[in-house]
Amino acid sequence: MPLRVLLVEDSAGDARLTQEAFCDANPTIRWHVATDGVEAMAFLNRTGDHSSAPRPDFILLDLNLPKMDGREVLARIKDNENLKSIPIVILTTSDAEADIVSSYRLHANCFMSKPVQLEDFETLVNSINDFWLTRVKLPQQVQ
Amino acid sequence: MNSVRAADPIPAATCDTNPQLEGRYRGLLEAAPDAMVVADQGGEIVLLNLQAERQFGYRRDELLGQPVTNIIPEGFAERLIADDLRSTEDALAQQIGTGIELIGLRKDGSRFPIELMLSPLETAEGTLVTAAIRNISLRKAAEKHLDEMEGKYCGLLEAAPDAMVVVNQDGDIVLLNLQAEKRFGYRRDELLGQKVTNIIPQGFAERLVADELRSAKDAEEQQIGTGIELIALRKDGTEFPIEIMLSPLESAEGILVTAAIRDICVRKKAEAHLLRKVEELNRSNEELAQFAYIASHDLQEPLRMVASYTQLLSKRYKGKLDADADEFIAFAVDGASRMQRLIQGLLAYSRVGTKGEQPRCISSDKALQQALVNLGGAVRDSGAVVTHDPLPNVMADEMQLVQLFQNLVGNAIKFQTSGAPKVHVSATNNGTNWTISVTDNGIGIDPQYFERIFGVFQRLHKRDEFAGTGIGLAICKKIVERHGGTIWVESEPGCGSTFRFALASIENSECMILE
Hints:
A: 143 residues; B: alpha+beta; 5-stranded antiparallel β-sheet
């Protein structure tokens, strides 16, 4: 069963870059991309166009998003009995202390700053894959 | 006087004595506090008292029957006599009761100022004149002194460049100068005796008065000499800002307060203007700093896309297209990553001003150690030997001091062409400043570039000789200047360089590092 990853990222370039970087490390991942917070919640709650959306095993969440920003998406997921067991990694360009603190307060599973250099980004992606998507035991899907 | 009128007519006076008169009036005369001399219409003295003898230095018998001009040479005898213009009664009536100031002449020839009070004395011999004579030497002297003082004081008052208003403890204006008239738009007589609140509605009169908390003296002392800014009111109702300086003035009427009043309209405007300019400058500086930060921060995002995808292109397609494509992509990758470094440098530079911490007492020794840890790879790879003397505690933003050392030691290691870099960090104190020096054995710098190297993006070498964006020393300069210090370089090409920065030294007692 391939892992399903929900990537919440408004920049198409960043979304593609993330997928490309993961592609080398783990080509079996099934990607689902939401480009804003509202779409992410619709996907997770299977509302609107996403009525048949699968439940993701893992979420990569950007903080700065249009419509509903990543902090609120994070808060809603972690406040939802059904969704809160899904690990969420914050992957953002921000390295502001305030963002780090507030993310952990909202129960983000971890916070990572996007490196500027591609090489560094690839290294980071490899470590995410190695830890979260390989070594870590994720909960079995519950419907 | 009624008793006198009711008395029987008095017989004609003899030339030397007047026993009847004497008998009748002696008691009365002697009881008077002043010298009393009674003269007849002819100007001869017919009676006098002991005070008169003393005052003029004569024995009684030396004066009786003598002309009154002997003791009052001018102004008395003339008044007794009717002339063509007036009758005796009129002449007298005009003098009665008035205080006439004349000069008295003593037997010894000395003169003294007197004041005469005349009253008529009807007798059988006709109307006599009683003169009460008061020696007014003291009063005259006092008056003269006062006049002099007032003359001097008024001169001073008028000469003062400020409007001057003298006020008594009740808040009444007792004196003012021309400048005060001009400033407030009143004529002098419109202000004298008026309440000072007419021209300074608030804040002045209140200060003159004692309240439950302080005595009049304290009230006044508290105000003396201080520049109090108040609002003044002109006659036409317009207001203007003033500064008043108060000082006490001892006078016969008690303690007066002199207020020097300065129109500070121009100063206030200038102050407001200056304040506005400073605010504008601060705002524009802040905006500029914000702009630099936001611009470089926001530029980073699209640049990251360009850099990442050109790198991805290079990685995936190198050798799969043609040689030109490889070269083009390589230039794009190089340009993008250089621009990233420039923007990161600019960001770091702008962060010195916007993200700095309040300086506190820190160990520069520790800051250097941290810088060396951060430089780790560069130090190891170059085989550099970095030594240092004991370094002082200084007031600084720790992160920035670390960065300062990191940039200076980093440069010292980088600009080296022969052998292992040797870097020494030392400190000297001249009493007011600590000067910390970073000395290397590197390539050195031509003195003509000593200023330029501290500018933003200034480089002296080709990129393939020495890497870098040219922001490092600009950041150093900004850090040192943010700490109120200075930074400079001493060098000779081929003989190494010494970068020095001076920071204000602090007393040991002021600087306790909490571990």
